[in-house]
Amino acid sequence: MPRVPGVRGRLKDNPAPRQKRVLLAAPRGYCAGVDRAVIAVEKALEHYGAPVYVRKQIVHNIHVVTELEKQGAIFVDEVDEVPEGAHVVFSAHGVSPAVVNAAADRGLRAIDATCPLVTKVHREAVRFARDDYEILLIGHEGHEEVEGTAGEAPDHVTLVNSPDDVANIEVRDPDKVVWLSQTTLSVDETMETVRRLREKFPKLADPPSDDICYATQNRQVAIKKVAQEAELVIVVGSANSSNSVRLVEVALENGAKAAYRVDYSTEIKQEWLDGVSTIGVTSGASVPEGLVKEVLLELEDAGYGEVSEVKTAEEDLMFSLPKELRRDLAGNRDARALGGRTRATSG
To answer: To the nearest 5 percent, what fractions of the chain are helix, strand and coil?
Structure first.
């Protein structure tokens, strides 16, 4: 993604009680699944030419979507909006079998950019449904990932939106119940939901491994540490990005006096900074690093030129691109077959 120019000189360098500084969380920004999905759309445009259709937002970030639209991607809500025979990319959040079948019925040439960690949850849902378990899916109603996972076994899935929902959950057989979760939730809230579910259903089974993705967990752990020292936390990310919204909540729960989410640096308000010495900065897993750099430049104008990175984990995971896109136009293996962007933790 290209650098996003901000409007410089907008914020004032007002006095603060102590030396001004920024604590920059790491890891932050693009995860491997987002990297894979965005490159998949870019490479589909290179291979097949514009337009390439994408069902839903490829990732939940307004800037990424806008830039891909400029390159020729067309985003649609459902596959019936895609011309017959055209190329369509399924977003990183995954789709249900019903969507896959609908695309096939229209003769669409589908490219599946579902994050492999979401695909893992889909497979778990299929397996537990086959064994006649009732699946308690912890997640947010209406989120595309939840719709895709539930669609794998609709007769076996009950959605649990929050810990408070647990009291109203009823199951057919309390001896055959398992929980799964949306990958981008708050770790702490999910574990509280599981705790309450286990109190109600003592034989509740666990998934084979934690469903909350490594990137979501890592970003939450990093912002927890930053929030202990920061009076203000700024999270770069879009409103429909579940993991970005959770980062704001996690910051507030772990010591930050204030925390705000912004898509662009131009949304930072002067009153947020007044009297603040230490600002924490992070970004959701679908946010390109250029947007974070613009925030740092705006804060530098306001006197926050000292930036210290707070690193709590290293990330080097990369996912192979969808099989249709692993070779270049000449048929040779593409150098970007395993993603290809610099990890945001490089500083």
So the answer is: 40, 15, 45
Reply yes or no: is the peptide bond before residue 27 cis, omega within 30 of 0: yes
Residue type, position 128, single letter: F
**Closest by CA position to 41, among listed 2, 71, 17:** 71
How would residue 337 be classed by pLDDT, with cut points 50, 70 and 90?
A: low
Residue numbers annotated as active site:
145
Distance CA 153, CA 149 (A): 8
* 245 three-class SS: helix
pLDDT tens for residues 99-128?
999 999 999 999 999 999 999 999 999 999
Burial of 173 (0-12, 13-18, 19+ CB in 10 A): exposed
Residues 338 and 318: beta-carbon distance below 8 Å: yes
- Specify the range with the lowest mean pLDDT, choosing from 17-21, 72-76, 185-189: 185-189
Other Cβ atoms within 10 Å of 292 Cβ, number: 21
Q: Which phi and psi (to 5°) does residue 158 adopt?
A: -120, 125
> How far from 49 is each of 45, 73, 148, 256, 326, CA to CA, in Å?
5, 10, 28, 47, 16
Calculate the CA 244 to chain-centre distance.
Answer: 7
- The answer to whether the predicted template modeling score (pTM) of the entire model surpasses 0.85 is yes
